[in-house]
Write a sequence for this structure.
């Protein structure tokens, strides 16, 4: 089942993120790879600015995804499913849940959400071709390089090297 996560889940979310992020090893540029991929203190800072949802079962959280409303857009952030559970539809269900999430229910930033134009964006590594296909199968379309870079600069707080090697996809409005 899908549930909202709290800071109490941070350690487990951190485990899920870092285990799943092994998929990036040797794929993303070497100078962008570091261990752990996401330290716990960085995750806690991220959690303060967005709502995380998780797929919870008998073995605990197996997949997580964050939803970050900002002025003008909403971002899908930090999508990770444990490697042993990938391909079961967990990521797809989490993504569909976020796509259909009623803005008025946002507990963190209802005011910002109200100002949002409703654009739903997701950023990922250019090299993560599986992730691009995953989002495209769920109605997202890849934006051009110039627009991607502009959006990454404007809305994502990430290192410049990560920005240069990432791309943005947008949910096709006709799909939402
Ligand atoms: C991308 C990711 C979140 C998707 O989650 P998921 O639970 O695997 O997604 P789903 O099972 O809903 O869908 C995955 C699709 O790829 C296929 N797939 C992905 N991994 C698979 C695997 N290990 N075995 C078999 N099929 C797999 C599925 O068949 C499915 O295809 P479909 O949509 O045509 O049915 C997850 O694979 C992941 O954590 N990857 C590593 C980290 C990453 O790339 N994150 C994205 C950051 S933006």
């Amino acid at each position: 089942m899908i549930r909202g996560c709290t800071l109490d889940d941070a350690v487990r979310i951190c485990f899920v993120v870092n285990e799943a992020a092994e998929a990036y090893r040797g794929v993303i540029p070497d100078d962008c790879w570091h261990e752990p991929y996401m330290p716990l203190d960085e995750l806690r800072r991220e959690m303060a600015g967005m709502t995380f949802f998780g797929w919870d079962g008998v073995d605990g959280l197996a997949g997580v995804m964050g939803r970050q409303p900002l002025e003008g857009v909403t971002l899908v952030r930090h999508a990770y499913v444990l490697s042993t559970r990938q391909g079961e539809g967990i990521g797809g269900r989490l993504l569909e849940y976020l796509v259909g999430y009623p803005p008025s229910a946002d507990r963190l930033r209802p005011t910002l959400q109200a100002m949002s134009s409703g654009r739903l964006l997701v950023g990922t590594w250019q090299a993560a071709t599986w992730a691009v296909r995953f989002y495209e199968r769920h109605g997202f379309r890849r934006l051009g390089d110039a627009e991607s870079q502009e959006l990454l600069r404007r809305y994502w707080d990430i290192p410049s090297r990560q920005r240069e090697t990432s791309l943005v996809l947008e949910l096709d409005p006709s799909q939402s």
